[in-house]
């Protein structure tokens, strides 16, 4: 997956936005003000930090050396994924799972608003 594809996929989710609260190079993708992905799209190698179910995070880290505990994040709930070596399908699934976890934690009124066309 290339940086442009990563950005496009993150922005494809309902109400997803890109912000730069830390510096001009760190893209922070949010839904309803909550972060679901962080990346430096110009970084070498390309990495993205994603929210993950804690039990699933441990298994992913064991199965893929490209997935490590979240860099500068809560290591129980976040993984940092080196994108290049992993299949694009897996990276997309991990991004989608992160988005879904964040949406599931939103107040009911916000979740319902997201479900509307």
Automatic annotation (TrEMBL):
The keyword DNA-binding applies. This is DNA-binding protein. InterPro entries: YjbR, YjbR-like_sf, YjbR/MT2646/Rv2570-like. Pfam families: YjbR. It comes from the Bacteria. The keyword Cell division does not apply. GO terms for molecular function: DNA binding. Keywords: DNA-binding. SUPFAM superfamilies: YjbR-like.
């Amino acid at each position: 997956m290339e940086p442009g594809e990563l950005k496009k996929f993150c922005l494809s989710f309902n109400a997803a936005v890109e912000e730069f609260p830390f510096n001009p190079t760190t893209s922070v993708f949010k839904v309803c003000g909550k972060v679901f992905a962080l990346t430096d799209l110009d970084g070498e190698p390309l990495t993205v930090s994603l929210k993950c179910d804690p039990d699933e995070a441990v298994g992913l880290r064991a199965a893929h050396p490209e997935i490590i505990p979240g860099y500068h994040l809560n290591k129980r709930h976040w993984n940092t994924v080196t994108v290049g070596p992993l299949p694009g399908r897996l990276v997309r699934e991990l991004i989608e799972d992160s988005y879904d976890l964040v949406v599931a934690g939103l107040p009911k009124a916000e979740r319902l608003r997201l479900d509307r066309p």
